[in-house]
Write a structure and sequence with these properties.
- The chain is α/β, with parallel strands linked by helices.
- Strands 1-2-3-4-5-6-7-8 form an eight-stranded parallel beta barrel. A two-stranded antiparallel ribbon has the order 9-10.
- The radius of gyration is 16 Å and the shape is globular.
- The two termini are 13 Å apart.
């Protein structure tokens, strides 16, 4: 099970995540997010990171051509789409894409079939925010044939890791707000305890 730590806004947190064993880190380019960071600032961080750490750009309802321009300029490895992007939007994007879906009780998992050229991230639905809410959804309702293919997000803490590894067995998890002191700033102790639990 891979780990992505999202909502990175500074080099110190990025390096700490890398040192502790994160597979990927995420930078949010959605201006309404509490964890928004300028592309220029990300470029400066990326220049100082290890080459095999995957750098993910998170966008919400952004023009695919703008995404391509930013990702090329600052050397991202992956794109995560967290809005209402279409399958056609994904086809225009040059880097590999993770398409996020916000899941509530009425969510229809069959809609994932409309998207062919991407990976899937499942997060908790919120009326006002696109991710980073700290909310969970009913993980046990994820169809079993999808579980080992998806990236699981939404309020994951160290106390959830055993259940997720034993019962859900996703390809990866995406963690953000539960490891923060405040939006955009990670908590060193929480990160260390999280990875300690992960490696048990």
């Amino acid at each position: 099970m891979k780990i992505k730590i999202c909502g990175i806004t500074n080099l110190e947190d990025a390096m700490l995540c890398s040192d502790l064993g994160a597979d990927a880190i995420g930078f949010i380019f959605y201006k309404k997010s509490k964890r928004y960071i300028l592309p220029e600032a990300v470029a400066n961080i990326i220049r100082q990171l290890p080459p095999f750490l995957i750098k993910v750009g998170v966008f919400v309802n952004e023009n695919p051509n703008v995404i391509n321009a930013i990702s090329k300029k600052i050397k991202l490895n992956l794109i995560q789409l967290h809005g209402e992007e279409s399958a056609e939007d994904i086809d225009i994007i040059e880097l590999p894409v993770i398409k996020a879906f916000r899941v509530n009780q009425k969510f229809n998992y069959s809609k994932l079939k409309e998207y062919k050229n991407c990976s899937f991230l499942l997060d908790a639905y919120d009326e006002k925010e696109y991710g980073g809410t700290g909310k969970q959804f009913a993980w046990d309702k994820i169809p079993k044939h999808l579980r080992n293919k998806i990236i699981l997000a939404g309020g994951i803490t160290k106390d959830d890791l055993k259940y997720i590894k034993d019962k859900i067995k996703p390809y990866a998890i995406d963690v953000s707000s539960s490891l923060e002191i405040k939006p955009g700033k990670k908590d060193k102790q929480k990160l260390e305890l999280f990875f300690k639990e992960y490696y048990k």
